[in-house]
Specification:
The protein has ten helices and seven strands. The chain is α/β, with parallel strands linked by helices. It starts with a helix and ends in a 16-residue tail after the last strand.
């Protein structure tokens, strides 16, 4: 109901805006090392026609935003501003970790751990997202105060939960002057993230995944493509591959629900209702601007979710002019 009311308000705002309206845009990044670069590039595109402000946590992320904005401001007659959203609790970032030893994280070990421990999370990235969001808790109040000064907010995917919760909390408190929110995903497009777990196991498991619970499944093409190329002698191989794809999807969806408990705990502290599926809730319920896919995850029309705009035009072979995004 809250989201429905929010969309109603935003639709009314859309009716009064024209293409030539100059908007005040906030772009929020987290402290993942590459994300300030991605947000700075988006800011340079949008600054051609709008007033853009970059926001990031203190430390290397904010320093990078300031350096990129300073360089841009010297070469153009427009200005990109920067603001701090405070400190994060990150000690060692989740991206800075040793290479995983496949012998110690085999498929059989993952299956055994999942069967013996109902709280074991077989899909590490689901937990990593929650770890990042927990580290961002100190920035929540600052973001909540800042967003009311803007017409549009982009949130990098690693900060989506924090930003979207701040918007939803303001809406619940009766603030109808809400900015529109777009999640900016700098991950290669993966259709599985944007599809509902209600589609499991009928459809979701058939699509290739770029991020998987079982490492070897990442090398598999889609079920339809695999089926169209096999010969009779490889039927058993095909069935084994389909089983692994189904099991990987089952474990991944289970992992999002386990991780979702941490997300719902944060939302409860913010007086927001539970959503049960962790970060997938935000990717499925907010507009998303996503990077294009990489082989073999470049999917065609039916796999691109309705709330997603993909840079790279996976729906056709036509080139996309990034300067026309807004």
């Amino acid at each position: 109901n809250n989201l429905g009311h929010r969309n109603e308000v935003l639709n009314k705002q859309n009716e009064t805006e024209t293409k030539d309206t100059i908007m005040k845009i906030l772009i929020v990044t987290g402290d993942c090392p590459s994300h300030p670069y991605a947000c700075a590039k988006l800011a340079k595109v949008l600054a051609c026609n709008h007033e853009v402000t970059l926001a990031g946590p203190n430390g290397s992320a904010l320093a990078r935003l300031q350096a990129e904005a300073e360089a841009y401001n010297k070469t153009d007659n427009r200005e990109i501003k920067c603001i701090s959203i405070g400190n994060v609790d990150t000690v060692v970032h989740c991206n800075v970790r040793p290479v995983i030893n496949p012998n110690k994280n085999s498929a059989l070990k993952i299956i055994g751990s999942a069967l013996l421990n109902r709280n074991y999370n077989p899909f590490g990235i689901a937990n990593l997202f929650e770890e990042v969001m927990d580290n961002q808790i100190p920035t929540y109040s600052n973001i909540k105060m800042a967003v009311g000064n803007f017409d549009l907010v982009y949130a990098i995917h690693s900060a989506a939960a924090t930003v979207c919760d701040a918007i939803e909390a303001r809406q619940k408190e009766g603030d109808d002057h809400l900015p529109r929110v777009i999640i900016f995903s700098s991950l290669p497009y993966d259709p599985v993230f944007f599809r509902s777990s209600k589609e499991v196991p009928q459809n979701l498991w058939r699509a290739p995944r770029s991020l998987v619970a079982f490492p070897h499944v990442a090398t598999y093409a889609s079920a339809d493509k695999t089926r169209s190329t096999f010969i009779p002698i490889s039927i058993l191989s095909f069935l084994v591959r389909m089983f692994w794809m189904w099991l990987d999807t089952h474990f991944a969806e289970k992992a999002w629900k386990i991780a979702g408990k941490r997300n719902d705990s944060r939302r409860a502290e913010r007086h927001l209702p539970p959503v049960y599926c962790g970060n997938k809730y935000y990717w499925q319920n907010y507009p998303v601007l996503s990077m294009g896919g990489i082989h073999p995850f470049t999917t065609k029309g039916t796999y691109i979710a309705g709330n997603v705009t993909v840079i790279g035009s996976l729906k056709s072979n036509a080139p996309v002019d990034i300067t026309s995004l807004d």
